Amino acid sequence: MALGLTIPVQESLAELLLPLGNLETVTAAALRRYALDHCLERIERAEHRIAHYEEQYGYNYESFNQRICTDQAFLDEVNRTHPTWEADAAEWIHRIQEAQEWRERSQTILHLSLPVLMPG
């Protein structure tokens, strides 16, 4: 569903953009690029935190969680060396989910914007 969105553009800027193509197409491409850049920024931030926890605990989340649930000696050691591990694990899984959500958004943006960007 396309919105009847009006975006004000200064006349001097519009004249500069004309050689790039139809202003609607240029605007759609700019919005797409902005949204994708925002998605990538959020993915990178989440992945940075994920990498921090992987380095701190020496495992990816799935392996860490499995060991916590099945290896009492490992759990005892983690409790001793990282008393805040439960809060870390909650944020860790949240960041994994966040990164996945932003990846899905970026894929949706790419998928939905293709018809607008392809010449008719």
Question: Could you characterize what this model shows?
Answer:
The chain starts with 10 loop residues before the first helix and ends with a helix. It has a domain at 40-117. The chain has 120 residues and is mostly helical. Mean pLDDT is 88; it is low at 116-120. The chain is built from five helices and no strands. Helix 2 (23-57) packs antiparallel against helix 5 and helix 3 crosses helix 4 (72-81). The protein is rod-shaped and about 70 Å long. The protein has helices spanning 11-17, 23-57, 61-70, 72-81, 85-117.
Provide tags for this entry:
single chain, 120 residues, mainly alpha, rod-shaped, disordered C terminus
Strand content: under 5%
Number of strands: 0
The chain-level structural class is mainly alpha
Spans of at least 5 consecutive residues whose pLDDT stays below 50 are: 116-120
Global mean pLDDT: 88
Work out the helix count: 5
Précis, in short:
With 120 residues, the chain is mainly α. The chain has helices at 11-17, 23-57, 61-70, 72-81, 85-117. It has a domain at 40-117.
Would you spell out the secondary-structure blueprint of this structure?
Layout: H1 11-17, H2 23-57, H3 61-70, H4 72-81, H5 85-117
Helix pairs in contact: 2-5, 3-4
